[in-house]
Structure formats: structure tokens, C-alpha cells
């Protein structure tokens, strides 16, 4: 039975979404094409109607999940980002959590296309949250971006270190608690417009 173009596109998107979840949960090498297609509800042979290789799917699925994470981050302040990201809920939700925390280590060993997908996702995240980073009016240009690179690296590292510990380990929680507290404390206290009006 012939599949319409619209249905073929919907099938492709479903495969990409399924792969995005499975890759974050198991890593790139922990997911085979046969298992992936079965989880998506399709036959193994149907994979190559949509993708040239597993590597192509890895890059597309990663770009997809990074874009979804960015959409969520757009509504957050930097403090909200810290609260959401450096949390036990995120640490335990590997399959639905941030692609950077789940797959950065794997991505470092993959193709240039996959690394480019990660670089683009990281860059967009830095732009989105860097613009929101609280800073004084006379702060040097680019300070928000510089501080956001530092903060993002610490947030991703905190989740990766915590996940490397057993789930019931006190250290797993300690890493999250310490990093969350230190990251929050590092945010500058800025004067609100209301405070400025009251002082004048």
C-alpha cells in the first residue's frame, strides 16, 4: 500500500522523536536500528526509506531535541533555568531531559555533522540565556555571554557527574545541591527599576 507524502513525513518525524528519546536514554551506541524501528512501530527495512544512515538520524534527532530544549529555555529566566536544570527531576529524567547533559560525552566521539548539530544547539542556548543574564548597566559588552558559557558548562557538568553516581547515592544529591547553590550565588544582584526610583 502506497504511503502519502504527508504520512511519510509524519512517519519520519515519529522516528526522529523516538530516536531522540532512546538516544538520550541509552546513548548512541546503545540503540540499534532494528530496536529503534521496532520501538517506533515500523519494520527494520523501512529505515532506509527515510535516512541514509544511522549517523544521519543521530544528527537529525539531536538537532530536534536540542531545538525542543531551547524552546523551553526561551520562557525561563537564568535563575529559573538553574532551578529546572540542576535538579533531581532532571537528573533522573534522562530520556526526556537535556540532550547536552545526556549525550555530550558521546557526541565528542561522533561525526562532524553531529558535532555541528551540538555546536548549533549550544550556541542558540547561549544566545537565548546570555541575553537574559542579569548584569549591571555599565557591564562590558558580551559579559552575559561569557558568564552564561561558564554557567551552562557547570550545569551540564553537574548533571553528568550526578548521573555517574548510583541513583541512591548521597553524593548524587550533594553534587546537585552544591552546584545549584553556587550557581545561584554567582548571579549578580541587580537594582530593579523600582528600587532605582525609590532611591532617587
UniProtKB/TrEMBL annotation:
<dbReference type="InterPro" id="IPR001647">
    <property type="entry name" value="HTH_TetR"/>
</dbReference>
<dbReference type="InterPro" id="IPR036271">
    <property type="entry name" value="Tet_transcr_reg_TetR-rel_C_sf"/>
</dbReference>
<dbReference type="GO" id="GO:0003677">
    <property type="term" value="F:DNA binding"/>
</dbReference>
<keyword id="KW-0238">DNA-binding</keyword>
<dbReference type="InterPro" id="IPR009057">
    <property type="entry name" value="Homeodomain-like_sf"/>
</dbReference>
<keyword id="KW-0804">Transcription</keyword>
<protein>
    <submittedName>
        <fullName>TetR/AcrR family transcriptional regulator</fullName>
    </submittedName>
</protein>
<feature type="domain" description="HTH tetR-type">
    <location>
        <begin position="9"/>
        <end position="69"/>
    </location>
</feature>
<dbReference type="Pfam" id="PF00440">
    <property type="entry name" value="TetR_N"/>
</dbReference>
<keyword id="KW-0805">Transcription regulation</keyword>
<feature type="DNA-binding region" description="H-T-H motif">
    <location>
        <begin position="32"/>
        <end position="51"/>
    </location>
</feature>
